[in-house]
Amino acid sequence: MPTAVTSETMTTHLSEGLTVVDLWAEWCGPCKILSPLLAELEQELPMRVLTLDVEGDTAVADQFHVQSIPTMLLYWQGKPVEKVTGAYPKAKLRAHFTQFLEAHDGK
To answer: Is the pLDDT at 15 greater than 90, yes or no?
Structure first.
């Protein structure tokens, strides 16, 4: 189950390996589609998912120049490495995260 964080608590929840931070808002239709898919993938792949509601908590969105949501920030070993904007089908997300994990395995 994804962990809800704020901009102040996010870094304390970053873990070893792949962490995906899901930037979303309650009013965002595509976010409502993406979030459950990320929760499923968190159970299926060796990754952690954090959720951050950017409505009223814009520090992380500002830091990474996020212009639209949903946006996923990918962290590897606690460091930001990629920004992905938009909602995608589960199969495409799984393929992207699997490729990411294979490319970073052992690094």
So the answer is: no
Taking the C-alpha atoms of residue 80 and residue 56, their distance in angstroms, rounded to an integer, is 22
- Which stretches does DSSP call E strand in the chain? 3-4, 18-24, 47-53, 71-76, 79-85
pTM for the model stands at 0.94
User: Which among 5, 20, 31, 34 is annotated as catalytic?
Assistant: 31
Cβ neighbours, 10 Å, residue 3:
16
| 37-89 pLDDT per residue, tens | 999 999 999 999 999 999 999 999 999 999 999 999 999 999 999 999 999 99
Is the CB of residue 60 less than 8 Å from the CB of residue 7? yes
Indicate if 28 belongs to the active site: yes
Confirm whether 15 is a catalytic residue: no
22 within 8 A of 35, measured Cβ to Cβ:
yes
| Catalytically annotated residue among 21, 28, 73, 87 | 28
